[in-house]
């Protein structure tokens, strides 16, 4: 297969290179694209050197089979036609096309077959916070249906990119050295702080990130009646997002049953032994693939409810890994 | 008034000294008590020097009117009789007596008058996470009743004491210098991490901290039917706890009405201007007295629901300040 990565120098682009290698993705030729700023940068992959090409509206995608695109929504919109017009499949990490009716929004463990219905040759990769939540919700949905979800997130700096991660590290170094920390990538200082604000605010008081969890969950799970209320919060963690989730099921359900279903669910790893102080934590799970679930218990506030805690690496399952898994799912099913 | 502080060298004890001064508390004589380890330590307060006396089972509390006690549940249990037997009123920060029927559990803005019904001369100060939540819930309760609450916390290191705060600072300094960080006060490294575990686990899968939010809310609000499901999480912040709260009211309620009621509520400060990136954050609110509320909006998942974000300094309103406010409430109403 001829593979392109658009946004190769970004945090997700770099992870895509790793994931393609680690999953033994069948790559015949590889092309790396980026902005004029990163054009010319060289990366070594599987022993060969690749130079980043400037993304332009030309015929560079003529022989490409699959393009993994992670360069922001405006770039995706601007270059979608350039990328797909010769037949390449565009797997897009941005929010540009996620809610378009003619673009499937895919998490392979949940709705992999939707990937085959992509009339525009564009498949959208969902938002990171939504991906890890729906992987964990899928077995519950199958078991008892889902009425409603409350979710509070604890989102790592990685969600804002590689430079944001560096800013957090620099802030702690500055504070330790008695210097004033610099604030550029986030609205406020993130070191020693918690910021209840991810993405821009909408007229209803929710942020765009929170509304993504509402809308994307419905589309991925084919459940237009699920109601999700999210509070998305940035925390001073480098990688891996955490979520406290409450689920109201349509039918009453036994926690032991849910535990069994989650243990067997694809993409989920139960890490739930409170007596041994075992539960998922972001520091331990950086660079890991699964969605880790712990603290599973009945919802004391709802007879039809349960609650759990989940952690997953935002750059892997939340972005690069899920994109590659979509392609692998399609190859396997062909 | 003759005032004693038990646990004077701790994080809360030190804050009690500040709060007594800042509130112009009527102190005629002051006695500081502590463990054998801290006995002999000297502190200056309002220009005079005080030496910490070792807490022992003797008559040292004979002339004391009010004793603010913050030295852990086992010390409170062991010395409650020593402290109260000559008539001193014990305002206890620990969990030792909170759920006892003959001990009132008081947040002045919510149930101040309960303080006058203390047959054992003991008044309990609630858990920090509960205090800030019930102050914010009170105007909602008055407006529309409360059926159910979901709450995810973002708790600062301060909740585990002064040494835990220092451990967090040391961990960041060690990491910045390339040294292995030391872990003693928490179950795991807290720097760059999120730990979904505060206090010990109970058989139902909730932690003791989470069950405090369930039980104490009922007692303080005189609402034995409120159902609270909490997930309590430690975050790498020094002081001030944050909470994402979803409330289901008994009667439908308009958000504008709730906003008005919260703006006028005692102890609450609305900080809610998303367009100006204004919402409460722990870094900004260290050392402040009120409970700050922001991100108030309708619950998209519940027609009778609303959700908000609140932040308050755990050592002040969550501990020292609330204890002193109980005493001031009683003095004012006498």
SSE arrangement of chain A, N to C:
EHEEEEEHEHEHEHHEEHEEEH
Q: Biggest interface in this structure? A: A-B, 56 and 56 residues
Distance between the termini of chain A: 14 Å
Strand content of chain A: 15-25%
The SS-based structural class of chain A is alpha/beta
Major β-sheet profile of chain A: 6 strands, parallel
Radius of gyration of chain A: 20 Å
SS element count, helices of chain A: 8
Counted beta strands of chain A: 14
Assembly level: homodimer
- Numbering strands along the chain, what is their spatial order in the largest sheet of chain A? 5-2-1-6-7-8
Global mean pLDDT of chain A: 97
Helix content of chain A: 25-40%
Task: Describe the protein in words.
Two copies of one chain form a homodimer. Chain A is of the alpha/beta class and 334 residues long. Chain A contains eight helices and 14 strands. Chain A has helices spanning 11-22, 73-84, 108-111, 128-144, 162-176, 208-220, 255-264, 316-333; strands at residues 2-6, 29-34, 42-45, 48-51, 53-54, 66-69, 89-92, 122-124, 146-154, 227-231, 241-249, 268-270, 291-298, 305-312. In chain A, helix 3 (108-111) links the parallel strand 7 and strand 8. In chain A, helix 1 (11-22) crosses helix 8 (316-333), helix 4 packs across helix 6 and helix 4 (128-144) packs across helix 8. The radius of gyration of chain A is 20 Å and the shape is globular. The relative contact order of chain A is 0.15. The model of chain A has no long low-confidence stretch (mean pLDDT 97). Chains A and B meet through strand 9, helix 5, strand 10, strand 11 and strand 13 of A and strand 9, helix 5, strand 10, strand 11 and strand 13 of B.
